């Protein structure tokens, strides 16, 4: 009866280990999606004074073409309450409206790209497509917004009703207050500085700070697990070791063979221990990738750290106060999912290592 209870506990331990692996993999998938978004820098204009009307946006893009450090960026603005209609079915829906000047693939990389030359096309979200058409097979259909007709080019994977179009010269009242820029040299700070040269002073929406904060969780989970396994294997190894009566004979050929034969289990655990240690070191080398903005010229540069802290504090206040668009919600949703999976992984690794120590320590005792 006791053996049956021990067996059940061991099965439960293995099951928790498998759940840990699944949650960690799912979390890393979310982190992978977020990691691809870290290739872009998001900027915001505080107030309309630094925002861009059509002529200013055109001027900035032309100035960028003439600059030494050519940037890839798009300017945009999102507003609520726009009315989009589909005349063939006599339907009209309220949606989020995103006016864009530049390449839309910098905001929606999975969609067909529009640019300033394509003023008759539009992108719509999955949520708006279902409301207007009842499905997503809608590419090529004609929608009307603001007394203009637009052809649907592609569908954005979002449940939020969203309509995206390229800004027209006649839209003089619209001020583009957001910018998305392809990050240069893994440095948002350097990217912002380069953008400011052609567009004036803008503020950085620092999502990298949150991303690397969450990534620390995914870095320490394998280390917690690895250390727990190393301590457990050390006990198993010690319990598996068999004494050899004549230790002096161990140096002789037949003595070594006898010793290896008696300590076969001990050697297996020794190899497993070394393998886990190697995997931990390899994982550390692969995972360490720190943005240039977080690396000072020397670690004792206290001026760097005080400025770094001040900038991060300002970035947090900005993210709390700014109006969030569809782009921001994409980051926030990803951070939320990755955080949940990371928290679950930490709980599971703590439970798993404790159960490993308790339920398998008597295996060789």
Could you explain the architecture of this structure?
This protein has 365 residues and is an alpha+beta fold. The protein has 9 helices and 9 strands. Strands 2-3-7-4-6-5 form a 6-stranded mixed β-barrel. α1 (2-37) runs antiparallel to α9.
Report a brief summary of the structure:
With 365 residues, this protein is of the alpha+beta class. The protein has helices at residues 2-37, 54-66, 126-133, 188-199, 207-240, 253-262, 264-287, 302-321, 326-360; strands spanning 40-44, 73-86, 91-102, 121-125, 142-145, 148-156, 162-166, 178-182, 203-205.
Number of E strands: 9
Q: Catalogue the unreliable spans.
A: none
Largest sheet descriptor: 6 strands, mixed, barrel
Oligomer: single chain
- Radius of gyration over alpha carbons? 29 Å
**Class based on secondary structure composition and strand pairing:** alpha+beta
What is the average per-residue confidence, as pLDDT, rounded to a whole number?
82
The share of residues in extended strands comes to 15-25%
| Widest sheet, order of strands | 2-3-7-4-6-5
Report the principal-axis shape: elongated
What is the number of helical segments per DSSP (H or I, 4+ residues)?
9
* N-end to C-end Cα span: 19 Å
- Note the run of SSEs as H and E: HEHEEEHEEEEHEHHHHH
| Helical fraction | 40-55%
